[in-house]
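We now fix the convention by which a protein and its fold are recorded. Here is one such record, which you should read through line by line:

>
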Amino acid sequence: MTSSRLRAGALLSALLALGLGALGLYRVTRPAPEAAGPALPACEDPVAVAWPGDGERLGCLSELAALYALAAHEAGCEPGETLARIRLGVGERLRVSSGEGGACAAEVEMLPGSSLLTLGLPIDLNRATVSDLEALAAIGPTRARAIVAHREAHGPFATVEALEEVSGIGEATLAAVAGQLVVAPQPGPGGR
């Protein structure tokens, strides 16, 4: 081989090695793909805890003590006896914040309708806000407002089927949303 062929071969080998090396470096340093969202808990009793600064963690009701401890840590408060007084149900969120004297303050609220649907849970027709109802594919802002206005004027719905009493809700709409709604028992005196 001539020296010019040797040099050309060496140059080609060097360029190839640099190209492959750069490709390998790209593979190592490129950003990981974004996650599709929070991991859904693998349980029948999903709940959430939240803390100041938009922190939130989904989990199972059976893990409430650990979830509460995490939220208390993130909120910078002392858990104390607060957990013993909390009645958290499936599909609800415990919002933890720092209260008086550094003790934790906790408030129970429903998860938003879109979160409930993502978790495979129905939306309670008698507790739903306009925003919650808008998460249903067949219900837009106008129908959602009509449902809430009807509930405020006539009291809680006795059944999901009673939704047909609302102006603008017919059989087709009811059929489209019935499996995503529930009418939960109303709390008695002194209940939530």
About this structure: Residues 3-29 form the longest helix (27 residues). The longest strand covers residues 92-98.
